[in-house]
Amino acid sequence: GILTIGVTGGIGSGKTTVCRFFEELGAKVIYADDLAKRIMEEDENLKKKIKKIFGEEAYIGGKLNRKFIADIIFSDETKKSKLESLVHPAVIREIISEFKKIAREKSYDFVIVEAALIFESGFDSELDYIIVVDADEEVKIKRIMERDNCSREEVLNRMKMQMDPAKKRELADIFIQNDGDIETLRNKVKFLYSLFQKISKLTGD
Ligand code: ATP
């Protein structure tokens, strides 16, 4: 197989930024969110099932109506878990086939997967190491308000929906506390990049 590493964390923790730095260094990064979106737009069978749950409005001209779906699952726990039980297994299957392809082609020494819901979806069992990124709550709130141009209230609502960051930290193999500046974060990722290169050589993965 190939050495596989997951990157996760709550809203505003900086997981995407961590993954962009890995990419800059030459690592292969799979973004589960992008993959999910693609599958939800291309898999006709899945589309049919999604329309059954949410109605025709779930798509606009073949494109996923993310806002519409997000608004519904925000307050409907049943629909949320129905959607997840359709999408998560499909995304996991797709990622595993990517792993196999990379291993076959020997195109990379290791592969990184960015996914917000690694623990929640059970995908952690497919990964060798899991990096959890977090930051001080006030720092996260400020960064998200700035990035998404939204209110403190909105950020807090989205945070409430997510798994407790302390719980994620407990489940992590590697933990990044992202309270410092962007250069500090970049250096942490650089260190991990060379660590994973060494591990992949040691294990012959
Ligand atoms: P989400 O789950 O909402 O997508 P995320 O965990 O992927 O969040 P990022 O998008 O990587 O988080 O980071 C959130 C915001 O904070 C971005 O605007 C990013 O540029 C900024 N940011 C991340 N880390 C730092 C840092 N160390 N210093 C300053 N800004 C940062």
From TrEMBL:
Pathway: Cofactor biosynthesis; coenzyme A biosynthesis; CoA from (R)-pantothenate: step 5/5. Keywords: ATP-binding, Coenzyme A biosynthesis, Cytoplasm, Kinase, Nucleotide-binding, Transferase. ATP binds at residues 12-17. GO terms for molecular function: ATP binding; dephospho-CoA kinase activity. GO terms for cellular component: cytoplasm. The keyword Manganese does not apply. It is found in: Cytoplasm. The keyword rRNA-binding does not apply. It comes from the Bacteria. InterPro entries: Depp_CoAkinase, P-loop_NTPase. Its EC number is 2.7.1.24. GO terms for biological process: coenzyme A biosynthetic process. It catalyses: 3'-dephospho-CoA + ATP = ADP + CoA + H(+). Belongs to the CoaE family. PANTHER family: BIFUNCTIONAL COENZYME A SYNTHASE-RELATED (PTHR10695:SF46), DEPHOSPHO-COA KINASE-RELATED (PTHR10695). Catalyzes the phosphorylation of the 3'-hydroxyl group of dephosphocoenzyme A to form coenzyme A. HAMAP family: Dephospho_CoA_kinase. This is Dephospho-CoA kinase.
